[in-house]
Every structure is written in structure tokens, then in C-alpha cells.
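Quick question, first post here. What does this chain look like in 3D?
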Amino acid sequence: MQSRTWSIVCGLARRRAGAAAGAPSGSGVGAAQFGGLGPSLHSAGISTGSACMLARQNGGFGDGGFIDSIRIGGVVLPNHKRLEYSLQSIHGIGRARARHILSELNVENKVTKDLSKVEIITLREEIAKYMIEGDLKRFNRAAIERLEGIKCYKGIRHELALPVRGQRTKTNCRTRKEKRA
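> Answer (accepted):
Ran it through. C-alpha cells below.
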């Protein structure tokens, strides 16, 4: 949940951008009322919705600012969840690996948006040691293609889109046997 101060600041930024975009220059609602910031936002190509984002990307307001979102391995981690659960949104990191990463780094399991920049950097370095996201998906796809190429039983089952690990097919396995285009 955002603070009241931040929502006021976002509202002012939206007004400035909106006044620059919509109001004529002599209407008295535009640049003169808000300190001349409206036209500069509009001329810089900043839309109404992204004016608030710009303030967040520049570190927010106040002493320490805050971090809008954390991107690790090409995935934006959810801000409102604890770190153990937000790490699980990365493909290749489950519950056990997330707990292992936190214990390796001695990082407290706090809400993601409360992480410091130093903690984020060490977290990125630790996660870079693992095969995640695109690399993991490519590795798994290559393993399946190898099985299909050598025409082993598992490879044939993959090609026919049937269950691979010995499950029954008379009544179940609807997920694998759905109609294919």
C-alpha cells in the first residue's frame, strides 16, 4: 500500500503532465500554476502515467527513496511478498532453493520492497550461480529433443504427446492427450 504523501506527489505529477498535454498555454491551469514543470514533462515525451514512474526510477523522494521493482534474471519480483516467496516467481527457483539462497546470504526474509541496494546486488550475484529462466528452459528442451532424436521410449512418448512416466492412458491424461492443431 502506498503512502499518502506518495499518492499526493503522483497526483501532482499527473496533473502537471496532463496540464501540459491538454490545457492551452494561456488557460491559467497549465505551467504557471504548477511551477512550469508541465511543458518540460510533455516536451520530454513523458506521458501522464509515466510521470509518477519517473520519480520512482530516480530514487523516489526523501532521504533513502525506495525501490519500485526488482528485476532479477529477467523477472520482476513482486514487491508485496516476502523475499522467500517472491524468489519463487523465477523459473528454476522453488521453495527449497529460495530458502537455501537466503541462508547462504544471511539475508532476513523481509518484504521485497524493503531490500537495500547492497542486498539486491548480493542477491543478483547469488542467483547468477544457478541455471534459471531461459537457460534452464533451453536445457530442458534440448534434453527432450535428444530423447526424441534417438527414438527411445521416452522420446517417442514426448513426440506423441502422451504421458512419459508410465501413467495410465485409458481414463486419465487429458492434459497430454488434448486435441492438437
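Residues 20-63 have pLDDT under 50 and may be disordered.
The chain is about 50% helix and 5% strand.
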